[in-house]
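Translate sequence into structure tokens.
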Amino acid sequence: MNVVDARGCAVSGATPAALAAFERALAAFQSWRTGSEADLGVALQEAPDFVMARVLKAYLGVCSRDPRRVRSALPELVRARALRANDRERLHLAVIEAAIAGDYERAKRGLGELLAQQPRDVIALQVGHAFDYLTGDSERLLARVAGVLPAWSRELPGYHAVLAMHAFGLEESGAFGQAEQVAGEALALNPIDARAHHVMAHVFEMTERPDAGVRWLNERMAGWAGADSTVDVHCWWHIALFHLARGDHGSALAAYDVRVRGKRSLEVADLIDASALLWRIQLRDVEVGQRWRELADAWSGHIDDRFCSFNDVHAMLAFAGARDWRLARRLEHALTLSQTRATRHGETTRSLGLPACRALIAFGHRRDALAVSLLEALPPLDFRLGGSHAQRDVLALTRRRALERMRRPARRSLVFPSLRPTWTGPLRDAMAAGWAPL
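Result follows.
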């Protein structure tokens, strides 16, 4: 029997009940909501030979910045390879194999082939979008989605997610007005598309509208916050950046304590947000107390990952912030070895990761001239670190602060003792319930 999904893509090994569970899992994946794993479990219990259910389960791992999660996709790949699959599904399996091997360029080419054959293959589109982001491929981030838009319409399930991906590509390309309009269209179709809310946070950040950003995210918190959102911590990171832009250091630290590090998450994405936020706060001469110690300890297990230069830079932020030069030296040594390897990580380490990390070490030792020299020597392709413009800005902010310290006599950092403890009382309760101070 020829079975197709809701977008007309042929699938192998599915039953009607399994396909319904798969579509629920895909809807959660598209909207950056939790629940995909549970629904895929239902689909595979109903139809163990359902190839695309296993493909999607593997992609949940390989789209991560954590190499352990990426490797967790291997057993699913092995199981899927033993099943009868069509040509499209076999190409998906080849993409997963390339991603597990760290060859994201080969994976992205395979995803491009899939979309050329079937522009409504929304899994190929979403994974390609994720890989473009992870590798800092801003041009393809926009072009990949724009290229398939003519094959889509609002009547197709998941169109809101396609619009949200397009909006993010527009935002990263500097078309902020268009990005805001398209993200609004996505939210009109699906108000709980957390990805579209995330795009709006970036638009407010890049257009320097912090007051509007805090107000907008506060008013629409049900669409992006909570345990069922995969971007909850990151959107709180954006709110904290808005507070910093307004000079409200206390609210930024409150967001760090309660929302960003309140659960002491060990997810790499959450550790990245924590490092990036705490570093930006400290650049403003705000005393952050022992917060760096906890964060450096959380990062210490990733020193030997040798997986992603974006991760390495954020780990070094924590080690330099904590002034833990033992961990900093360990990471520098690991990167010195990694740069000699003919791998994706070896290449980005040579050109970007290692010099950036050495600049952060120099900055931590107040060797500001050296820090500035190393940061200014980074190639113009620093976007290849991956991440967004808002995230990569941490290096430019560090360079600016080093220049300021070189031009001014040394002075003691400002200390705000009332900001140091864990937040208690009404502010803690309100933040934990999901409220950002206006």
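Note: The radius of gyration is 22 Å.
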